[in-house]
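Technical annex B. To support the medicinal chemistry partners, we prepared a structural model of the target in complex with nicotinamide-adenine-dinucleotide, based solely on the information shown next.
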Amino acid sequence: MSSPSKAAPLGSPQPLGVGILGAGPVTQAIHLPSLARLRNILEVRHIMDVDAAIAESVAARVGANHSTSVDALLGDPDVDIVAICSPHQFHADQVIAACRAGKKAVLCEKPFAMSGEEAARISTVSEETGVPIIVGAMHTFDPGWLAAEANWGDLPENVHTIRSSIILPPNARFEDFASEIITRPASGTPDYSNVEVIKDALRGGIMGLAIHDLPLVRRFTPDFEDLEVLQARHVRPFGYVISLRSGKQGPRERIIELRAAMNKTWKPEWVFEAISDDAALRVDFTPSYVQAGSAIATITRRAGNQNTGSTTFGPFEHNGYEGEWRELAQLALGTKQPPSAESLINDLTFAIAIADATVDEAAAEHAQHSNSHAGARS
Ligand SMILES: NC(=O)c1ccc[n+]([C@@H]2O[C@H](COP(=O)([O-])OP(=O)(O)OC[C@H]3O[C@@H](n4cnc5c(N)ncnc54)[C@H](O)[C@@H]3O)[C@@H](O)[C@H]2O)c1
């Protein structure tokens, strides 16, 4: 470990020190390229991975310390900001440990946690320690999205249709464009006749992919108590088609459509839409892993029977990944207010509610299908 400490005092022009827990493809292909563009404000100082060879090799790329222990990274005084990029089952405990270590800010890759119980534990520690936390839902930091938010007026109150549709090639293709990935787990062919496989795949799709846009959906459905699943299907090899309804009892019913397919597409597409009788928002995001500027947002309005035209926002120079890191620097320096832990918890609760309801619906449909096939055979 280097000495004397390089930790940046508040307001100092010296870069803030970054420590990363988990140095897999997301660290290598997403965060290190983003941080390379922000060297004047952020410096990677410590890379930790349970695999010593990965920790050492990734740290060598950026001239950082390396270790295989969470405690070693959290105890490193050169680390001001901690990014948690380990597999999801470790997120909650590592977020809590980073807060307790008194770091200046924490980025947790999505999903933030996997259960309401974990979310409540994080919330308590975040309140106790006051350490700002953000979740790596990168679209919420995309300047194209933020410009739309500043200009969409009363669309959230009047929206009736919300759509997130994603068509992407598998992550590995993007990872390989961006970096030379060290070690990748082998994958087998799932047994789709087993309902547990379908349930796991759907839950994985929601907590792993849809979760990027669920905080955006929630901006248009803040009240999701009466969420109802109209349709839920797993799409092979990886994807989903899900229709939901909310607000049936209230002044405005909303239909939410979530669609994703990860296949051999040559044309990736990631679109978010929110539509009311008088206005429509469409946001075209760059695919995950791609560092090619921001999303482009278009708002189209109607007055009476007239289309009053469209306004386009973006593309801006940086994307949501870089936006996350810029925000972390501001939070660590105390120049920006952190998001409330409550809103992060609500985003997670929303995702878990959708995952639970969707998995139940898919299991019921699978059982019905199996029964009708058995009936046809008898
Ligand atoms: N924001 C995005 O666009 C995006 C895209 C894909 C995945 N993700 C998320 O990023 C995270 C990392 O994804 P990945 O594809 O790099 O995952 P991965 O599982 O391939 O790699 C994670 C790394 O963490 C290491 N590791 C395992 N246990 C650990 C522990 N207890 N502590 C620290 N490190 C540990 C592994 O050795 C591996 O090198 C996941 O939470 C994933 O959901 C985000």
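Notes passed to the chemistry partners:
The chain has a mean pLDDT of 89.
DSSP finds twelve helices and 14 strands in the chain.
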